[in-house]
Structure formats: structure tokens, C-alpha cells
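Q: Structure for this?
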Amino acid sequence: MSRRTIVLFAAIALMAVALAACGGGASSGGGAALNVSVTATEFKFDPATINVTPGQTINLTVKNTGSVQHTWVLKAVNVSLTVEPGKSATRTFTAPSSPGTYPIECDVAGHKEAGMVGQLVVK
Ligand SMILES: [Cu+2]
């Protein structure tokens, strides 16, 4: 094999690796987008735990079926939704790229203390 041929093969191999790295995750980096519907009421989220993969795109809808205002706050990625009673709100965001358990809370005074918390589990 000539030196030139080896360089050419190396370049092709590198391109294949680069394409493979980009191809799988599209823009999300973590596979297909996840649609999540959360119901908020006094004083809990259902579901409270959301399981995602690192960097996954999440299309979140929070519906407030309670009788007072609630929020759904995931500080790790600066997502904060405020939802009036009887209404719903949506947001698309990207999950953290590092595996771990990230706390979710309702930051209306007293609600977190009353148990209105959840978690985003990235793994
Ligand atoms: Cu609340």
C-alpha cells in the first residue's frame, strides 16, 4: 500500500466515525424526543419521576388540575413553567448530558414543603 493510499483510507475512516456520531441522535443527541404529560395538583406531580437519556429532547406538557397556581421547575436546565388552575403549559427542553438525578419542584410558597417535588432521572 502506498503512503498516499493509507492517508486516503485514514481520511475515509475518520469521516465514517464522524458521520456515525452525528447520525444517531439527530439534533437531540439522545435519541427520539420524549413526550411527557405531567398533571399538577395539591400537592403533587403525576408522574413525579421522569426517566430520560442524556441530552434527550423532552416535549413537556404540565396540566394543572388543582385549584391554585402551580409551577414545574427544573433548575438544572433553567426550565420553569407556571400553570394556572385548569390550564396547561408546554415547553421543549434538552435533558442534561450528564447522568444523574435532578430535582423538580413547585416553587409556589409552601408547596415543595408539602411534597410537591419530583425528579428527572438521566441515565
Ligand atoms: Cu404547587
